[in-house]
Amino acid sequence: MGGALGSAMGSTMSAAAGNGRDGSRTTPLRVDAQRNLEHVLRAAREVFGELGYGAPMEDVARRARVGVGTVYRRFPSKDVLVRRIAEEETSRLTDQARAALGQEDEPWSALSRFLRTSVASGAGRLLPPQVLRVGVADEDNGFDASRVPQQRTQPGTGELRLVAEAPALSADDDAGAAALLEVVGQLVERARAAGELRSGVSVADVLLVIATAAPSLPDAAQQAAASSRLLDILLEGLRSRPA
To answer: Quick check: 201 and 184 in contact, CB under 8 A?
Structure first.
């Protein structure tokens, strides 16, 4: 009896503590807000991964099963939400590259592991559009932006560079992108120094492989199989072969 009574009293006190003077439940609202945020972020990753960063906020809200007003309360503009997802993906790619670099002794194994892990995670569908830009050098005009939209290279080098374009990059964006480029650059340089990477393959090419090998298909099993097959083909194209 004493235990049951104590439990009941504890429950009553907890409920009272969770209610405001007006009877509103403060603690559950905070929990709900956190849960809504998680739903919105997960939905945004799915929607942007399937439809690109041009997908409307209404699609994100619908996938998260919340009102669009809830999305805008957490993210006052679409740019803010896109930046959040892009930052997370940049960080995830950087972690995957560091893991491959630290856990694989063979240069080619490290590079291919990074590519396989990144493609399997679907990160290629969410490469930050405002952080990394790759392009194709044009002898007459310098850049042919139409060849590879949203990305550019340093003229004549094929290497990625950071550019500040609207919306402007924040300091965090810049630092995150620089960290990603540095560690992927180490993977590329190791494979190149070992003679296992084709001449001319750059950091930009490696990141484009991640994007290219991550198609968005409605069936998960079909998508995984397509990604794996396409990545095998692309890896064969990257790898240097003895003459």
So the answer is: no
